[in-house]
Amino acid sequence: MTYDYLIVGAGLFGAVFAHEAHKKGHKVLVIEKRSHIAGNAYTQNMEGIEVHQYGAHIFHTSNRKVWDYVQQFASFNRFTNSPLARYQDELYHLPFNMNTFHELWGIITPKEAMDIIQKQIAGAKITTPTNLEEQAISLVGTEIYEKLIKGYTEKQWGCEATKLPSFIIRRLPIRYTYNNNYFNDDFQGIPVNGYTKLVKNMLEGIEVRLETDFFANKEEYCNQANQIIYTGRIDQYYDHCFGPLAYRSLSFEHQLLAMDNYQGNAVINYTDASVPYTRIIEHKHFVSDSTHVVASGKTIITKEYPSPWQPGCEPYYPINDATNTALYEQYAALASKEPKVFFCGRLGTYRYLDMHVVIEQSLQLAAQLL
Ligand SMILES: Cc1cc2nc3c(=O)[nH]c(=O)nc-3n(C[C@H](O)[C@H](O)[C@H](O)COP(=O)(O)OP(=O)(O)OC[C@H]3O[C@@H](n4cnc5c(N)ncnc54)[C@H](O)[C@@H]3O)c2cc1C
Question: What Å distances lie between residue 64 and 67, 69, 128, 306, 360, CA to CA?
Fold first, then answer.
C-alpha cells in the first residue's frame, strides 16, 4: 500500500480529514475531480473580489470547538447574514421579524403582528396540513406565504407548492423582535481571504491531485490505500445499481458590473414567481463592512437559477422524499459492509449539510479512526 488514506474529494470533509491524518503522521493522497479544491465552498478571486462560485457560503455555528478549529486556517470577519426579499417592487427584511411585519402591515408592536398572523392562520382553517402550501400557511398565515414563500419555493423545487410534501417546511422561524440576523448561532463570519485559502491551508504539505476522477481508476486507487474516505456520490460508487438518487441542481450566472455597489446588500432573494432566479448575491458585501463599500468602480453579482438535475449536472440539493430515502437506505446498507471505505460528506450521506456540520463530522471520524 502506498497510502494510509485515500481521500476522494477536496471539499471541507475531505480537507479536514486529510489535515488530521497528515498531522498524525499518516500518508495521505487527496484526489479531486474538479480543477480546484474547497468543493462547493470554493471562492475565486476575480477583479480583487472573492467570488463564491457555487452560491453564497456563510459560516455559522454554535459549536465552539468547530469555530475555534477553523480559526487556525483563516481569519474570519464579522459578517452577519441579513438577507432581503424582493417581491415585485416591494422589499422586505428576512428572516420574518418585526421589521418584516412593519414593512408588510405598518404595525409597530409584537402583539399587533401576532394578532394579524394568528387571524390569517385561523381564517385558513387548516387542521392537518397535507402539502407544503398548507403547512406554510398554518405556520405564518396567508400573506407572508403568498409574498415571501410561495414563488421562491416553487422556483426552488420546480413544482407547485400544493404538490410538494409538507415535511419540506417543518418550521418557519418567526421572530417577534427587530432582529435581521438570519442565523441564531453564536458564531458567524466569512474567511477574509476566501474559503479556498482556508482549505489550501488545511491541505498544506499533503499530496493533492486535481482533475482526477476516482472512477477513472477505481480499482487501482482502492489497491493503493489502506482506507478510503469517499465524499463523492454514494449511488455512483455502486454504479447506480438500485437507480440514481434524485437531486435539484442550480446554475450560477456571474456578472462583472462597472459600478461600486449594485444592490447594497450581500443577498437579495427574489420571491416573485415571474423572476426566474431565486436570489442575487453581490460578493463584495461579504467582506466589506456594511458601513462603507470599496469604491473600485466594479462589482460582481451572481444570479442563482434552480434547475432540474440530470446526469452531468452538479447535484446540489438531495430530494429526501420517501422514494429517495428508501433508495438511499439500500445504498447505505451496502456501504455499511465495506471493510475499508467510509462514505462521508453531503454526497456520501445524501444529505444537505451545512459547513460546520461537515467539519464536525469529519473531526469525529478522524477521532474514531486515527
Ligand atoms: C448553493 C449552496 C449554498 C450553501 N450555503 C451554505 C452556507 O451559507 N453555509 C453553510 O454552512 N453551508 C452552505 N452550503 C453547504 C456547503 O456547501 C456544504 O456543507 C459543503 O460544501 C459540504 O462539503 P463536502 O466536503 O461534504 O462536499 P463538497 O463540498 O461537495 O466536496 C466534495 C468534493 O468531492 C468531489 N468529488 C465527487 N466525486 C468525486 C470523484 N468521483 N472523484 C474525485 N472527486 C470527487 C467533488 O468534486 C467535490 O469537490 C451551501 C450549499 C449550496 C449548494
Answer: 5, 8, 39, 33, 11
> How many Å lie between the centroid of ligand 1 and the Cα of residue 123?
42
- Tell me if 343 CB under 6 Å of ligand 1: no
10 lines ligand 1 (CB under 6 A): yes
DSSP state of 39: G
Q: What is the pLDDT of residues 40-60, one digit of tens each?
A: 999 999 999 999 999 999 999
Closest ligand 1 atom, CA of 57? 8
**CA proximity to 92, closest of 80, 106, 75:** 106
**pTM of whole model > 0.85?**
yes
Question: Domain 3-79+189-245+318-369: which CATH class?
Answer: alpha beta
3-state secondary structure at position 229: strand
**Domain limits of the chain?**
3-79+189-245+318-369, 96-168
318 lines ligand 1 (CB under 6 A): no
pLDDT confidence of 290, banded at 50, 70, 90? low
Q: What is the DSSP letter of 321?
A: S
CA 176–ligand 1 middle distance (angstroms): 34
